[in-house]
Design goal:
By secondary structure, the protein is mainly alpha-helical. It is elongated. It starts with 8 loop residues before the first helix and ends in a 6-residue tail after the last helix.
Length: 123
C-alpha cells in the first residue's frame, strides 16, 4: 500500500505527461496563450491532480469518481494534442510519444477503477 500519492506509478506518469505538455507548448504562438496552450496545460495537469485527490478521499465512490475525472482529463489532453497536430503546431512524433503515455495512463486508471469497483469478499 502506498503512503503517499507521489509513490504511485500512475501519478508519476501523469506528472511526466503534464511536464511534457508544458514543454511541448512553450513555443506556441502568442495567440494561443489563452486558447490551446491554456487548455491543454490545464487538462494535462488535471490528470495528476485528480489522482492525488482520489488518493486522499476516504469513501470508495469518491475515489472512483476522481479516478474517472483523471481519465477524462487524460482523454481531453489527447484531443487537444490531435487538434494541435492537425493545425501543425505539433509534430506527429511528439503526438505519438504523448498519446502512448496517455494510453498507458488510461489503461492503469481503468485497472484502478475496476479494482475499486469490485465487490469486497465477505469475511
Amino acid at each position: 500500500m502506498y503512503k503517499d500519492f507521489t509513490e504511485m506509478p500512475v501519478w508519476n506518469t501523469a506528472m511526466e505527461l503534464a511536464v511534457d505538455v508544458f514543454n511541448l507548448t512553450l513555443n506556441l504562438p502568442k495567440s494561443e496563450d489563452y486558447a490551446l496552450k491554456s487548455q491543454i496545460r490545464r487538462s494535462a495537469e488535471s490528470v495528476s491532480a485528480n489522482i492525488a485527490e482520489a488518493f486522499g478521499r476516504f469513501h470508495q465512490k469518491d475515489k472512483i469518481n476522481f479516478y474517472h475525472f483523471a481519465k477524462g482529463s487524460a482523454l481531453e489532453t489527447k484531443s487537444h494534442l490531435i487538434y494541435g497536430m492537425k493545425v501543425q503546431y505539433f509534430h506527429s512524433e511528439d503526438y505519438e510519444k504523448l498519446s502512448s503515455k496517455i494510453e498507458d495512463l488510461v489503461f492503469h486508471l481503468n485497472k484502478i477503477i475496476k479494482t475499486l469497483s469490485s465487490p469486497k469478499p465477505q469475511s
